[in-house]
Specification:
This protein has one domain. 30% of the residues lie in helices and 32% in strands. The chain contains two helices and three strands; from the N terminus they run βββαα. The chain has a three-stranded antiparallel β-sheet. The model has no long low-confidence stretch (mean pLDDT 79).
Length: 71
């Protein structure tokens, strides 16, 4: 079976880093996945990361898309 994504733990429970690809040579997205099991905790983690947006984007070297998805 083939998958179009790779995930790795981010060093804290409920957080992971994911990379998705369309083809073998065409990357699509890298994103932080937040699922602590609590919608309130997920929102708190997102809000904390977003409050450091300028620092994170400076370390990355460019603008990032900040999208909050909830289920």
């Amino acid at each position: 079976m083939q998958y179009s994504w790779v995930a790795a733990g981010a060093g804290k429970s409920g957080l992971s880093c994911n990379y998705t690809a369309r083809t073998r040579h065409d990357g699509r997205a890298v994103y932080r996945y937040i699922d602590t099991g609590s919608a309130e905790d997920n929102q708190a983690v997102f809000d904390d990361l977003h409050s450091h947006r300028d620092e994170i984007e400076a370390a990355y070297g460019g603008d990032l898309s900040w999208e909050h998805w909830s289920t």
